[in-house]
Amino acid sequence: MVKKYAVFLILWSFNLAFAQQEITVTGIVIDARTQNPLENVVVTIQNTAVMQLTSKKGKFELHVFPTKEKLLLLRSQGYKDLLLKLQYNSGQNINLGILQLEDTYTDEVPAALITLSDNDLSDDNSSSEMTSGLLQSSRDAFMQASAFNWGQARFRMRGLDSENGTMMLNGMTMNKIYDGRPQWNNWGGLNNVLRNQEFSVGNAASNYTFGGVLGTQQIFTQASLYRKGTQLTFSGSNASYTLRAIGTYASGMSASGWAYVVSAGKRWADEGYFEGTNFDADSFFMTVEKKLNSKHSINFTGFYTPNSRGKNSPNTNEVTALMGEKYNSYWGFQNGKKRNARVKMVEEPLFMLNHYFKIDEKTKLNSGVMYQFGKVGNSNIDYQNADSPDPVYYRKMPSYFSSLYGKDKGEFSGDFTPDYENADKSRTTFLANSQIDWNAMYLANQKPGQNGYEPSQSHYVLYEDRTDDKTFAVNSNLNTQLTPNISFDGGVMYRNLKSHNFQYLLDLLGGKYFEDIDPFYKGDLSQSDLQNPNRQVKEGDTYGYNYNFLANTIDAFTQFKFSYNKTEFYLAQSYSMSNYQREGLYQNGLYPTASLGKSEKVNFENFGFKGGFVYKVSGKQWLFFNAAHLTRAPSLRNTFANSRLNNNVVNGIESENVTSAEANYVYSSPKLKLRLTAYYTLIKNSSKTSFFYAEGIFDNGAGYDPTDAFVSQTLTKLDKKNTGAELSLEYQITSTLKSTLSAAYGNYIYNSNPNVSITNDANASKDGVQTTFDFGKAYLKNYKQSGTPQNALSLGLEYRDPKFWWIGTNINYLTDNYIDVSPISRTSQFYINPANGFPFPEASSERGNELLKQEKFDPVTLLNINGGKSWRVHKKYIGLFASVNNVLNAVYKTGGFEQARNANFRALNQDVSSGTPSFGPKYYYGYGRTYFLNLTIGL
Predict the structure, then answer these.
(1) DSSP per-residue string spanning 271-308
(2) What Pfam family is a match, any one (predicted)?
């Protein structure tokens, strides 16, 4: 009986909710300057599925259920968002009259600065550009500072990599399955056409996906959303590129129901800020929409952004002291021109078809299909039976001679025996030959013949590490308003990946052929492919390694949002399935039985739950609380121990566990906008694989044979804890003068002592010889995470004149940036003498702590100045923007890592004690003084 009454009460409450009478909200949207009506402005009721586009006359009409307060959002490309509060009165219809939108041409130019950091992104795409704004409307002062002011110092919001955020295009997730991160180079040069965006920050609700703990960035390319007209952009800079030109045309929706947008651009530089960093990028974009009727619309989007850039090298303090912060060891002169040996090339065109179905005024369904293919290549020099071509190879540096020690005396360290004479000679030689010698490599690949020098076997070649991906995806998202107070969002997505990974020979450098062997081994062990031994490869051939990654993923989510007079809250759930597999195309000589063919399938099944609560203290104050707990599959990259050689899966690999929470206080008035945020994120059970050459790593006394080896290192059970607070303050001093204050406090640490396993592939073919060694725990707990300043402060001042010119400046202080430590040096094996298996007699805990103390980079102060002016000429727009970053030309380190070569106490202690370490840490440096000029013409 009690159950029957409960069911009756629930049904009765829903009946009352549906029984409420709808009201109509109407208005007309116009351009604030021209006073002309604006067509295709997106008009939505926040946190509902109610949405409509304005007509040619700028009119809109929404049908909604009345509650005491709702937020109406107007959004159109090229205009500032307009957010209005709707006050309902006794079920009466609401006529908002004429609503004016202000253009944002002067505001949109700084957004293009994001592309200036492309060359500064690390090769694993770990940098994060997930900037966002409150209530999914506009960026607040903190988001602006983190993206534009602090981004040049590689600041990561909340210390999280971009794999913790979700990048979406028309409802389709764009994070790569390989590493969980977006491939930022796919978007290069498309600034003008990717401005229709919606953000959610942290664990806040998104209408399109469950999302990550960093937030969600959704980009819309529906053709009817673009402002009709032509825009030309011309830019100049001295950062990653020198010149940029972009042209964009949007047709607007025609009477026959067609709309399209096309854009093309070019960015290039013979040399960027750092020496030898050439840059060449094109961009082509098209989106076409056909409105079938009032309910159905189909949209096609395609873009192609081929780009290549020369990389810049990380350098030791020794190299920087000799050559300066702009020095780059990756290039050399060839025929009078600078040629970079390490070039990253990205060509991955994308095609997407979307169906927009407006079921009724309260329900819409967006479904899509996507196909992306192409290639990513990273070039380098390969060599056999020859000296290293690297100009900073350790044996070529003065420190090699000034850090010499004699042979060990039994169990004790040898004497310090520096050779300063040869160190001076080495210094002179290096200064005279500080770049790659391309001509010497060409000569080494030739031999004397009857007609002079003729091509012979190449000892040096230029190759690419290539990844050719083919990704197919389908998805569907449903958004509906169930009752006046309850809305539902749900979606499902399937992705299939075939990723071909191989070594590709680009250039024989004047030679005739190159042997497909590993010269460090002999016989069958040296063969890359036992099915085709002793191959002589030529330009365009695959060699070295060759395999496919195969992956399938399914992601689904549901979300309920509840909105009432004083409170709002939401609950969301996610479910995902992933399976990974490696398919070897070569039978490697080291792993003849574990390299060819398909590996076992690795399966992961994961769940997620999150929720949030909003309490409206008053019309000016809000409190927000969000929390999430989820599990997620490890990335494809970290699932296999050494995918280039074999099918082996990382031992003990499992899904990561992520727990995150945040609390926000927001105050908003015409003069003051304030946000205070506290956050907590714990990521457990991470894994990470890396490769390096280590000296004195194995215990000869235990019978492991050589104590030096090129090894793969795998970390498991790695936990990270990120806690901190954010402050965003914006104060309108006068109608034309505004001040901003942004602050970030963070404490990002490793929260566990992960397990370390080392694989020595050289032992793979030896009967009864161990290949993988358990080094126990790396004592990393409470070490700082690297790669970002953990604390930052920004103070800004901006003047905007009524005559449409503006100028602004900001000063920024960034500190608590730490080096990436070597885990193997933090294991107990570090103190063991590999010659006899006993602890080093000179090793003490005090000296060990000194050697292993994590380096903290010096803080940096960055001063930036920017300004602009806009004109209306015959109803056309002209905008000019200029900025100078790091006006004071500060020199600072943005990141760095310890070299893991000295893998035991004695080797590291001798190297450091010499005063001129041969294997000191390597560092990346930020840009010095850079400028950016931009001219925009709107026709």
Answers:
(1) S-SSTT--EEEEEEEEEEEEE-SSSEEEEEEEEE--EE
(2) CarbopepD_reg_2
Q: Which residues are CB-neighbours of 690 under 8 A, at least 6 positions away?
A: 712, 713
Instruction: Report the C-alpha gap between 35 and 28 in whole angstroms.
Output: 11
Residue 453: which pLDDT band, with cuts at 50, 70 and 90?
A: confident
Report the C-alpha dihedral over residues 513, 517, 519, 523, rounded to 10 degrees: -130
Residues 528 and 516: beta-carbon distance below 8 Å: yes
Q: How far apart are CA 536 and CA 638, in angstroms?
A: 32
Structure tokens at 38: 């604006």
665 forms beta bridges with 623, 676
Q: Which amino acid, one-letter code, is at 494?
A: Y
Interhelix angle 905-913/845-852, nearest 10 degrees: 70
The tally of CA atoms less than 13 A away on the side-chain side of residue 642 is 23
What is the per-residue pLDDT for 568?
93
581 contacts: CB under 8 Å, gap ≥ 6:
549, 550, 551, 598, 599, 600, 601, 602
Q: How far is CA 35 from CA 40, 95, 99, 453, 836, in A?
A: 16, 19, 10, 75, 86
Question: What H or E segment, with its residue span, contains residue 432?
Answer: helix 420-432
Residue linked to tokens 């991906």: 469
Query: To the nearest 5 percent, what fractions of the chain are helix, strand and coil?
Result: 15, 50, 35
Contacts of 57 (CB under 8 A, 6+ apart): 28, 37
H or E stretch at 852: helix 845-852
CB 920 within 8 A of CB 407: no
User: What pLDDT, in 10s, does the model give residues 612-629?
Assistant: 999 999 888 999 999 999
Q: Is the distance from CB of 204 to CB of 626 less than 8 angstroms? A: yes
Contact 681, 746 (CB under 8 A): no
Which residue from 560, 645, 555, 568 is spatially nearest to 604, judged by alpha carbons? 555
Q: How far apart are CA 729 and CA 740, in angstroms?
A: 6
Are 696 and 757 in contact by the 8 Å Cβ rule? The answer is no
Beta strand pairing status for 94-101 and 23-31?
Answer: parallel
pLDDT at 130: 32
**CA torsion angle 108 114 116 120 (round to 10):** 170
Question: Between the CA of residue 312 and those of 220, 317, 321, 347, 430, what are the distances in Å?
Answer: 34, 15, 17, 21, 18
Q: Phi and psi (nearest 5°) for 765?
A: -95, 0
Domains and CATH numbers, the chain: 23-102 (2.60.40.1120)
Distance of CA 574 to the CA centre of its chain: 23
Note the Cα 376 to chain centre separation in Å: 15
CB proximity list for 95: less than 8 A, separation 6 or greater: 26, 27
H or E element in which residue 605 lies: strand 602-616
CA atoms lying within 13 Å on the CB side of residue 616 = 14
**Which helix (H) or strand (E) covers residue 775, if one does?**
strand 772-777
Fill in the amino acid letter for 653: I
Residue 703: which region, alpha, beta or left (left: phi > 0; alpha: psi -120 to 50)? left
**Cβ atoms 40, 252 nearer than 8 A:** yes
- The letter for the amino acid at 632 is R
Confidence of residue 767 (pLDDT cuts 50, 70, 90): low
H/E stretch holding 845 reads helix 845-852
Burial class (CB in 10 A: 0-12, 13-18, 19+), 421: exposed
* Mean predicted lDDT score pLDDT of the chain: 89
The Cα diameter of the chain in Å comes to 106
Q: Please write the tens of the pLDDT for every residue from 416-441.
A: 999 999 999 999 999 999 999 999 99
